[in-house]
Amino acid sequence: MRVITTDNALSVSKKHIICSEILSVTSAMRKNSRWAANAQTPSYTRDSALAASLGLRRASVSSGILNGSAKQEVQLMAGFLELKREIRSSNNIDQFPVTALLAPFFALIRSPLSTGPITSVALSALHTFFVSGFITVESAYVETALAELSHTVSNCKFEASDASGDEVVLYRIMAIIEQCMCGAVGEKLGDTEVCEMLETVLTTCCQMRLSEILRRYAESTMHAIVRRIFRRLQSLDPDEEEKKLVNADTDSSDNELKMVVQTSHDTDSNEIDVTLTRGENTFEERPETPLGTPEDHEPNSPVTTGSDYGLPSIVELLRVLVNILDPNDHLHTDSTRLTALRILSTAFEVAGFHIGYYPSLMSIIQDHGCKYLFQLARSDNPNVLYMSLRVISTMLETMCTHLKLQQELFLAITIDRLAPTTATKAQIAYMSQQKGLLTSPRPGTPVLGIPYSPTPTPGEAEEENSGPPKPSIAPAKGETRELMLEALNHIARHPSFMVDLFANYDCDVNCEDLFEKLIDFLTMGVYSVYPSGSREPSQHASQLLCLDLLLAFIGHMADRANGTDIECTHRTYPSPDDLLQSKSRKRLVLTGASRFNAKPKVGLSFLEENKLIYADISETVDRPRSLATFLKSCNHLDKRLLGDFISRPENIDVLRAFIRLFDFKNKPVAEAMRELLESFRLPGESQQINRITETFAEVYFASKPANIKSQDAVYVLAYSIIMLNTDQHNPQVRKRMTLEDYQRNLRGVNDGSDFPFEFLNAIYESIRKREIVMPEEHTGQVGFGYAWKELLARTRLSGPLRRCNSSLFDITMFNSVWRPVIAAIAYAFTTFDDDYTVQCAITGFRQLATLAGHFNLPEVFDYVVVSLSQVTSLVPDTLVTRVPHYPVVDVEGQDVTVSTLSVKFGTNFKGQLAAVVLFTIIYGNGNAIREGWTQIFEIYQNLFLHSLLPSPMLRAEDFLGGLSIIPLHGNQPSPRPAGRGDGGLLSALSSYLLTPYGSSAETIPEATDPEVENTLCTIDCLTACKLDELYRQITSLGGDALVAAVRALEALAHERTVARLKQEIDDLVPPSSPNPRRGPPPPQTLSYDPGSVYLLETMVSVISKTPQYIEETWQVPVVYEHLSALLSSASSYSVLLIDRAVAALWRLLLIIADKPSLRDQLYLSLDMLGSLPITVASSVGEQVVAGLISLVKTHRDIIRSQTEWGLVFSLMRSAMKQPAASRKSFDLLVSLAADGVEQCVTMDNFAGLVNLLDEYASAASSAVESTGQHDKRKNAEQQTSEIAIQRGKQSVDILFDLKKFIPKYVESGSVPAAQVWKQCSLPLVIVLGRQSTNAAREVRHTALIHLQRLLLGQQLVLVGVEGQAEAVFNRVVFPLLDDLLKPQVMQRDLRGMPETRLRASVLLCKVFMQYEVNDEAKQKDIRGLWIQILDLLDRLMHAGKRDQLHEAIPESLKNVILVMNTTDILVPPSANDQRDERQKELWNATHERIERFLPGFLDDVIPSPPSPPSTVVPESKVEASGQL
């Protein structure tokens, strides 16, 4: 019987069906004893139309034959017989009037004489007519028939028989009503007919005496009908329907529709009667007026207009269903309310969105609908709770745009009930640290059953201390909690839900911060409230629900960020700037209200300072009005304090401005007082009350009220209303004031006359029926009613809820909640074990990472990285500097190290998941990380120490041997290596083991099969993490992220080096140590730490591969400071670490050499390298020189000045003690000084080159002296020294070749000749003179030859430079001879040194004659120089006993003397002595000095001439001069 539409094609004729149904009904009637007795009564007992037509008159039947009931029975039977005859005589059944067809059946159904079986058959016949297509929209008189049908089924009365038979009748009624209303003909029903049928079905649903099956079937019918009629809202025109409803309301007074639902029947009655009453309301409590309707006027119920049904019947149905929900109405049970809730749920599911278009429907839902539903949501009955929550969730999902404040109330109460009553210490600490705000209550929102009042939370005491404490709400537990959480989860699943909360509530100064409050609750809800072991069964489910909602919030935000979830349903959405500004203002208002509630004066100062008051002052707005406007509009103020503040004497202007803000025009005085007194709490002091009433009287009387003649009369009335309100509603008053008493009290106060009776009666009744509820005065139902009224008043002002799934606010929302959200997801990921939850948490982490990158919030990404890294267990808890020897096993040809970390991590599946997720979200998002790099590199470092990193990440790069593996273990402590002499390419790495393991006394344990398996699991996980790809990706980071990564690496390296060294020193010498005068403790050498080398290599590798950011990375102070700290205490660290530090520094210096802004840093670094201790420099010299060679060859243009070249030469000099480094340094020196493309000799580096070549030549002397032999025998030491000798000889040759640059410098004119002499010529001959005493014979002789060539040549003497000769003698020749005369110099080469002396003596004489024996000598005094030469010749002659030198010196001296005599410098005395005084002195000094070691020598060479008669030049002098 559930079929609504049928195929009208029948196999039999319609006449057959009608006659069959008539026969079925009459047969059932005849079976009854009553009907059987009257069945044969002729039908002509009634007035016969036939007799009248023939002009006959029939005598009336005696009343004794048939009584009234019998007559009715006969008439009912005759009706069917007449219908049968008409049907048979009809030619076209389709044109047969439906009213005539159904009339006998309707009459029988309505007849109280019928029984249950008979009525059942008649109803079955009606149903057959519907399904067989007899009743269609095209049928004649179908509207009348349907109206009659509605009246018939709604007034069906029959004698009760057995209960089951009676219920069959009701069952058939339900089927007919459903067939009628849900079929096509239902469109022809009017509002009255619909209400009648709905009343019948709804009454059947609520009849508890009926069987469960029947009630369920009736409810199913009701659901089908509700779907049909509420779906009609989609096709109706809201404006037209509302107009019809208003017109019907104003035009009709007697035809008022009211549905009445009876839930029980009189037990003595044998009839089921569901009636339709007109013009009265059977409910004891009439519903309050919908929004926008004056409270003293009850709108009439919908009235039928005779047209198709529409909004009036739907409004009436909704009104009835809502009134059934009233929890304070004891006429209805929970079972009845459940039925109404289920029907409402169906209605909202069908037409929830369209209901909002009809104000008449929304007024019911906004007021009583929400009011009753929210109260039922506190029910202890699980079924009622579930259904009420379901209806609420559907309602809020479909109509939330019209229920802004109602949704706020429900969510606030739900969160308060769901929030844990007590939080753990960890949760409290977490909230204090992460958020600082536990809740953010907003004043003015009612609490179910109790008046709402705000309460300050520990985190918001400053901002929201705006009233008395908020009453505690019983927390939801067990099944109730889970149901409420499910409902909340369902409501909040909409993609725009969180955005709507933020934009509509958090950014509204008069609303609660629902978004923040909800997120706070959800994040706390993820944590377990109960200690382990006492967990409630539903606790886990609650945690999952909270987590699910959090993840949905993050997911929707991520979708919006990706542009895939944008949907805006409100076209007039305000701009984000306006809303965010409103939110900022809200925070200021909350703070100002809080301070006002604590101390009004302080609060007003804050408000004025932030321009919340007095900012709107103009010609029409003064200071009192500006303040009054704020006080009236701010819902966060303490109403008690507000009443006290405005009634103070000094604030009378504010009070007057406050009351003038009310519109009292055309308002009764009682309603005006009600509106005023409900805005603040009336003070208790009489003087303050007097000020308020006086001001009210002034303002109210200015509005020209009727029936009041003076302001004093208003004053008395105001006082009387306050007293009447107390009298009528104070429970302590037993004898209430009557109307007569009230009139008597007000006699003659209206300016000497009485008030009209109707005027006072209206005041009296208004106060008696409805108490003036002052704020924060009442509790319980009265207080809730007042709070609900305030909510409805605020609804008119707040406007609709704007729904927009926009990403405009996401960054602000995300910024305010990301930290607790990440912590909650991390907790869930760590705690929960089911795969679905873990997978959801992983998705959440990825979406958080996406949002962090999208919003450019590195701190968010850092927090995600930190959270996940802690879960991985890969971050070490302690600082490990010594790596144990772990076993190594061969797995498929690969060496696998089985370490403690690999075994432990292999068993930690949750940690492996976290690692994969961590590196997955990092990959591609490196630019979003800042502080998180510390955790990432800690993981890398830990994996390195356990041999779990890919091999490409273990290599160290330098300038010598390319790439080499960083060793994990160092050798046993030994002295620092002095360097290699083979000149190989390997650096100090050769002094350490280049494999993970080496010879050690430590026992290596065997690896078990489970350990190997766990290690393989670890390797597979790390392979999935793609560590090497992330490592390579670091080089493509942006500047900020790269700097952050470098900072992280340096911080970790600093902890392992500088901080560790300081700690060990502090441990050796505690601060309280005695003997404070002692100096600092000796430097401690730290053991080799592979982690520090790895971090250093990684840091430098990252910087060197990103040269475009070298200015940012180098200028990060920590990088240079770290390298400086290592090199300044180089003796305290392992040689490998220092070697890597030097290589690292050079790699960076070669990059910054291209940056002029960092040039000073380069020079400082070079100076630091040159200042390394000798022991360290000998170890790392090869790296130093290798870097220097690269710098000089590639960036020679940056080394120009003498200071800069001095840094270069200093580094080259420091490397000379290491043979390999010395070789490289000498090669560089040769390339700079010798002929070639790399030659670079300038005035700035000439002296440095000379000095460095001098040192290499001197090194040859040291090498020869160390052997102690100068013979031709070869031994190991001599073979080693040959290299030094060759370099020394080559150095001397290069020195001599440098002479060619001197003329160029002079010719260029850019440098004065004197400076060239001082910086180039003189240093050059000084060095050659010094090397003329070299222990290496080849070097010495070469140097002496080159010295002689220079001194006797023409290139050395520069024109215009004074003092050259004196400098040559005093700084070159004389020191040379002095050194040669020293015994220790003689010991260097006993065989070859005499020859050197001989050559030096000859050189001395030649140089003297070259520089001093000339015409200029006649004009100057050379006596001192000449005497020094004679002294040296004397010493040389007597220094050795060799005949060669003894004989050569007199001969050389002879030649010098002859030349001096020839040039008239040395002139002997004569008879005619014409010498000047200088010649005389020179001869005497010379004669005296030579006589000491060569007696008679001078006289033999230059004999004194005889006294000739005339002066003739002797030929012998000329010959002597020619010999010289």
Number of helical segments?
Answer: 63
Helix content: 55-70%
Which stretches are low in confidence, meaning pLDDT under 50 for 5 or more residues running? 41-46, 61-65, 265-270, 272-305, 422-428, 430-471, 972-1000, 1510-1524
Query: What is the residue-mean pLDDT, rounded to a whole number?
Result: 80
Shape, per Cα inertia axes: elongated
* Main sheet: strands, sense, barrel: 2 strands, antiparallel
Class computed from helices, strands and strand pairing: mainly alpha
Using the CA coordinates, give the radius of gyration: 58 Å
Strand content: under 5%
Strand order of the largest sheet: 1-2
* Tally of DSSP β-strands: 8
Distance between the terminal alpha carbons, to the nearest Å?
154 Å
Explain what this protein looks like in three dimensions.
The protein is mainly α. Helices cover 60% and strands 1% of the residues. It contains 63 helices and 8 strands. A two-stranded antiparallel sheet has the order 1-2. It has a two-stranded antiparallel sheet with strand order 3-4. The chain has a two-stranded antiparallel ribbon with strand order 5-6. Helix 38 (933-945) crosses helix 43 (1090-1104). The longest helix has 25 residues, at 1243-1267. The radius of gyration is 58 Å and the shape is elongated. 45% of the residues are buried. The model is unreliable at 41-46, 61-65, 265-270, 272-305, 422-428, 430-471, 972-1000 and 1510-1524 (pLDDT under 50).
